TrEMBL record:
Keyword Transcription: no
Protein name: Response regulator
InterPro entries found in the cross-reference section: Bact_response_regulator (IPR050595), CheY-like_superfamily (IPR011006), Sig_transdc_resp-reg_receiver (IPR001789)
Domain of life: Bacteria
Residue ranges that the Swiss-Prot or TrEMBL entry lists as coiled coil: none
Modified residues (4-aspartylphosphate): D37
Domain Response regulatory, residue spans: 1-105
Keywords assigned: Phosphoprotein
Record flagged with keyword Phosphoprotein: yes
């Protein structure tokens, strides 16, 4: 699903997510935000997001970790290793998550130096005004 300005890809595992990111990058697309559950088949969310931050192509990609089972140590690892921008414990409020992603996507657009006016429908106006 998607619109003219952004697409959303849903993947079943960390390895699948990385493969899709590789494919999208090869096609010239940008990866603005990665949202990962902590518990997944294969790589856990911290491992996936650490792989993302260690790939120079995605150094500015924003990262969100969702969890219902992580420990305090997992949270510390996510922040230190994967340098996540946001962490949500289940159950999370959908509006809060959407607003967070909107803000992170806005920050990504500015970090990349894109013309923010072309992205008006998805931007966080508070972040734009800062």
């Amino acid at each position: 699903m998607g619109s003219k300005s952004h697409d959303i890809s849903i993947n079943d595992s960390g390895d699948e997510a990385l493969a899709v990111m590789d494919e999208l990058d090869a096609e010239g697309h940008y990866i603005g935000v990665v949202i990962s559950d902590h518990i997944m088949p294969g790589k856990n969310g911290v491992e996936l997001l650490t792989d993302v931050i260690n790939d120079s192509r995605f150094i500015k990609t924003k990262k969100v970790l969702l969890t219902g089972q992580a420990t305090h140590q997992d949270t510390i690892a996510a922040i230190n290793q994967a340098r996540i921008e946001s962490y949500f414990e289940k159950p999370w409020d959908a509006d809060t998550l959407v607003n967070c992603v909107r803000t992170l996507l806005t920050e990504y657009i500015f970090d990349m130096g894109f013309d923010y006016q072309a992205w008006g429908e998805v931007l966080d106006s508070t972040t734009v005004l800062r």
